[in-house]
Structures are given as C-alpha cells and as structure tokens.
Specification:
Length: 212
C-alpha cells in the first residue's frame, strides 16, 4: 500500500473558527519533473528508453494545453478529466450586452477532476482508502532513537607473558532533527476548514463556469 507522510500542524489563522486547533498536513518529499518521471516510467519494465518516454510526456503536455484552449475537455481513463473554467471579476456586467471579456474576465483556470468510475475510482474519499498514513514525527522519533542508541562501554583485557592492557570505549550520544518543514497555502488543502477548494469533485459538465 502507498505511504503518505503527514505532519500535524496548528492553525495559526486568528480569523479562523478553527484557530488554535490541530490538523494533518501532507508532507511531500520531492517534486518530480518531467525528466525524473520519464526515468521512473522507463525503469518500471518499460521497453522504451527514458528519452522516448520523455518525448511522449512532452507531447502530451503540449497537446493537452492545445486541446483545452480549443474548448475541449481531456479525459485520461483511470486518472481523470482536465478542463477549463472561467473566473469573473467581482463586479459583473449590468446587462448581457455590456459584458466585455477584457473588462469582466479575471482568469482562465485549468481544472482537474479525478476519475470517479467504479473500476478506477480515485476521487477524494476513495483515494483516502488506498493509502497508508504515517506521521512524520514518528519517523523523526525513530531516527532520533537510532542515533541516540545509548552509550556503549567495553573493556578488553589481555594478559599473557609480559603483555597486559585494557581498553574502554565510551560512545557519546547524538540527537538529530531531520527534515525541512515547508509550509504554504495549497488550494484545496483542508487545514482547519480554511482551504479554498478547487472544484471539490464537481462534475465539469454541471454548474456554472465561474469560480467561487
């Protein structure tokens, strides 16, 4: 089972109803770029070299953007659907005929909706069931215990003839705190209920094409 690292952090937003409470926040180990992902795919029993896989991924990226800009949604079976939504300025047009793209549109967003079919469901609640969660503090504590494995003292004596001696080894203790803590606001993170979610699993075919 996949392992998801998390850390428990305190809500520091004094304007939040959840201020002072503790919530889990995911701890990402690294960000794979296209080249690293291509190498990873190639090493998983693929008959294609990393360069070939990289070329396919790059073509996928460029074609995905191209299709989205042609008002098309792109569904990758088993993964999900990419699509666009519009974000309007707060003050909309008073009349339909007064609407102006340059004046009233604020942004064009790329959205992603995870696969929700029965066979390949990776929607938020189902994805939760596929992972094993590990508190990063427990790993740091184990690491500290290993490094602080106690001091060892030993004595070796040899006597024979005119040679006699003793040796004593005393090992000091070391303690370490590992890992960098990265904190930031991620759209859609549930940290005390203050995350501003994306589309929250909405059907891209339904609703209105304007962001909250």
């Amino acid at each position: 089972m996949a392992k998801i690292l998390y850390e428990v952090k305190k809500n520091q937003n004094s304007h939040s109803a959840a201020f002072g409470k503790w919530y889990a926040q995911i701890k990402n180990l690294e960000t794979l770029n296209t080249r690293k992902l291509a190498n990873h795919i190639s090493e998983h029993g693929s008959i294609y070299t990393p360069d070939v896989v990289y070329g396919v991924l790059e073509k996928f990226r460029s074609c995905l953007v191209e299709m989205l800009l042609e008002s098309k949604k792109v569904k990758i079976e088993g993964l999900g659907t990419f699509y666009c939504t519009l974000e309007n300025q707060k003050n909309g047009a008073l009349k339909k005929e007064d609407f102006n793209v340059n004046k009233h549109l604020k942004a064009l967003h790329i959205r992603f909706l995870p696969e929700q079919t029965t066979e390949e469901n990776i929607s938020s609640r189902q994805f939760l069931k596929q992972a094993e969660f590990i508190n990063i503090d427990s790993l740091l504590n184990k690491e500290g215990e290993t490094e602080n494995g106690g001091s060892t003292t030993g004595g070796d004596s040899e006597s024979g003839g005119s040679n006699s001696g003793s040796q004593s080894n005393e090992g000091g203790s070391q303690s370490g705190n590992g890992g960098n803590t990265n904190s930031g606001s991620n759209t859609g993170d549930n940290t005390g209920g203050d995350g501003t979610g994306g589309d929250g699993g909405r059907d891209p075919d339904g609703g209105t094409n304007s962001d909250e």
